[in-house]
Amino acid sequence: MGFIGYLISLVITGLIIGGLGRLVVPGPNPMSLGLTFGIGLGGAFVGGIVGALLGLGFISIILEVAVAAGLVVLVSRRGGQLTRR
Q1: Hey, CA dihedral for 26, 23, 44, 76, is it positive or negative?
Q2: Is the Cβ–Cβ distance between 22 and 36 less than 8 Å?
Q3: pLDDT of residue 28
Q4: Per-residue pLDDT at 84
Q5: For 28-45, how does the pLDDT look when each residue is reduced to its tens digit (9 = 90+)?
Q6: 42: which of 8, 35, 50, 81 lies 20 to 30 Å off by Cα?
Q7: CA–CA distance, 6 with 55 (Å, rounded to integer)
């Protein structure tokens, strides 16, 4: 797989991981598609690196979703505090 294929798979993985991260967190999450994509990329990147360092293999997907869910919580709390003023 070349570099373009890697980028395409990264985009697809980012959207899927971001969506799963939003589903794991209960309650409404009024985030845009771009923010979901960014959270998914961040979760996939950080979780993938930590999973690779720990040698988790395919199980690192769980870690990626957990990191994305944590990012969703952080973004939701920050947005909630900004709109309460």
Answers
A1: negative
A2: yes
A3: 75
A4: 45
A5: 777 787 888 888 888 888
A6: 81
A7: 21
What CA–CA distance (Å, rounded) separates 14 from 45?
9
Q: What is the pLDDT of residue 76?
A: 76
Residue ranges in the chain modelled with pLDDT below 50 = 81-85
Put simply, whether the predicted model's pTM sits higher than 0.85 gets the answer no
Give the type of residue at 26: P
CA distances to 23, 36, 44 from 81, in Å: 21, 19, 26
Q: Which residue's entry shows tokens 């395919």?
A: 58
Query: Among residues 53, 51, 61, 15, which one has the least CA distance to residue 34?
Result: 15
